Amino acid sequence: MNKLNIKKGDTVVVISGQDKGKKGEILHADPANNRVTVKGANMITKHVKPRRQGEAGGRIEQEGTINASNVMMVCPKCGKATRVAHQIVDGKKVRVCKKCGKVMD
To answer: In terms of pTM, does the model score above 0.90?
Structure first.
């Protein structure tokens, strides 16, 4: 099983692909498949059939998944896209910004 350096609720920037440069929040992280869903990025059109009488069908725009290697964490302290380091602080493993050195957890 893969371990991701980003998790749900983190702010990331897309670094490659058609949505390069877009910032968004992680809505869902799937470490087993190394995929993440970013709010407002990789929008796909899903065709939905009405399931009950009176329910509307149609086309729905929703976020698709992106490979986790195509996004980079944005540090909440310095606001820059950065790689993530790990340190042990008070006996707990935490994520640290590579640029400013501040704890991100």
So the answer is: no
